[in-house]
Design brief:
The chain contains seven helices and nine strands, in the order βββαααβαβαααββββ. With 239 residues, it is α/β, with parallel strands linked by helices. It has a five-stranded mixed beta sheet, with helices on both faces. Strand 8 and strand 9 form a beta hairpin.
């Protein structure tokens, strides 16, 4: 299953007149990041940046001089999201602006049935809140120290981690996961097998493999590093 976690920054809140000035997204396949991403700053084509929006994202008109218009990157964006479920926080805002930009180009809108709103997921799971992206990062122990302002690509990366926690897709609340990376075909994850580690019962943070996993199943020459999605990645020495 392919999913795109994405975010936008805009000149303001008015769908009719305001424009997207930054758009970013990251790709997940079967709940794991593939390393593929999409990111552009965009010229708002004469639309000024509202002071309240500037306070949120810090993107100035001077920074956008010479950047492409949405039209110039629209085909690349549509190719990136083709066939994927779209994940966004307060998704109505982001998909509304994307569809407004597409409408200006005479393109059909992105169907709302393809979109998952993580804010709605969070409100169902944590009805007492708070459920902002920063609050969810704190709740799940996700490092958001780089997030001094909103930014489309960084926020997409953080939201990917939050989304996985919200849906329990990586069993992050129960333990850690190890990805056994075998032979790859390019950047494909088609040949990746997954072993879920059980949490340690010894009072330490070290996980232990399930009883049905033999040590012989692990690569003999491996390096183990923390992944950004709260998992251990065991990578064969040849990768």
């Amino acid at each position: 299953m392919r999913e795109i976690v994405f975010d936008t920054e805009t000149t303001g809140l008015d769908l009719r007149d305001d424009r997207i000035i930054e758009i970013g997204g990251v790709e997940l396949v079967n709940r794991f990041p593939t390393g593929r991403s999409f990111h552009h700053y965009l010229n708002p084509q004469g639309r000024s940046i509202h002071a309240d929006a500037l306070a949120v994202h810090g993107i100035t008109a001077a920074q956008l001089a010479g950047k492409p218009a949405f039209e110039a990157i629209s085909a690349e964006f549509l190719e990136f999201i083709a066939g994927a479920k779209l994940i966004a926080h307060n998704a109505g805002f982001d998909i509304g602006f994307v569809n407004a930009e597409l409408a200006r180009l005479g393109q059909p809108p992105v169907e709302h049935g393809r979109v998952v709103d993580t804010l709605a997921l969070a409100r169902r799971k944590h009805p007492m809140g708070p459920n902002s992206l920063d609050s969810l990062c704190r709740r799940y122990g996700i490092d958001n120290s780089r997030r001094t302002k909103h930014g489309a690509l960084l926020d997409s990366e953080l939201l990917a981690e939050v989304y996985i926690e919200l849906i329990g897709g990586k069993q992050a609340a129960l333990g850690l996961e190890i990805i056994i990376a075998g032979e790859r075909r390019g950047d494909s994850l088609a040949d990746t097998a997954i072993i879920v580690l059980e949490p340690s019962t010894s009072g330490t943070s070290s996980p232990r493999p399930p009883s049905n996993v033999s040590p012989s199943m692990l690569p003999t020459k491996s390096r183990i590093t923390w992944s950004p999605l709260a998992a251990l990645r065991v990578l064969g020495a040849s990768l």
